[in-house]
Write a structure and sequence with these properties.
180 residues, mainly beta, six-stranded antiparallel beta barrel
């Protein structure tokens, strides 16, 4: 399904695969819900049993049968009002496996992460990406939800145009579409 515009929400999961509803702000005050465009929703397959182990070879939290799905979208990357302030779309960068590096009050940079635990990285590193993210999108009075999402992203740079981050999240249905 292709959708031109909708609201997308992301939130780092405390426990992998356990859905958390995105809210109005995270620990650093960045909105967890932001406008996106060119949404593509692919319900990817039939219901199947959840994997027995996580990527860390430990027991996975109890989940009912799950169905894989993919959510792709584009977001315009735009700066915030103050230097050294993360962009509104920061959770999209983190969900794509990038660590956030904050240099004083002058800049924010994103680089590939070596660890995925959602912790503070110490001097210069604001946040490492979490192991997985919950994702929601709202369209025509319904909310579509996914858990256990991990993503990949591509920056599109064109002279004289917006900087666009294209995100593809893969995860599992959390619940059937519901009234929002």
């Amino acid at each position: 399904m292709y959708i031109n515009k909708a609201l997308v929400g992301l939130r780092a999961e405390v426990t992998q695969g356990t859905f958390l509803t995105p809210g109005t702000g995270d620990a650093v005050g960045t909105p967890q819900i932001f406008p996106a465009f060119n949404l593509r929703w692919n319900p990817g397959g039939e219901l199947r049993a959840a994997p027995e182990v996580s990527e860390r070879l430990g027991a996975r939290p109890g989940q009912a049968d799950v169905a894989p799905c993919t959510l792709s979208f584009d977001v315009r990357v735009k700066g915030r009002t103050g230097a050294g302030t993360a962009p509104t779309e920061r959770l999209a960068f983190l969900a794509c496996g990038l660590a956030e590096e904050v240099t004083g009050a002058t800049s924010v940079a994103y680089r590939p992460a070596l660890t995925y635990d959602g912790s503070s990285g110490g001097a210069g590193i604001g946040t490492r990406p979490a192991v997985s993210y919950s994702a929601s999108y709202w369209l025509d009075g319904q909310v579509f939800q996914m858990a256990g999402c991990r993503g990949k992203g591509t920056l599109k740079l064109k002279a004289g145009d917006w900087i666009v981050l294209s995100v593809e999240l893969q995860g599992y249905y959390y619940a059937a579409p519901a009234e929002a």
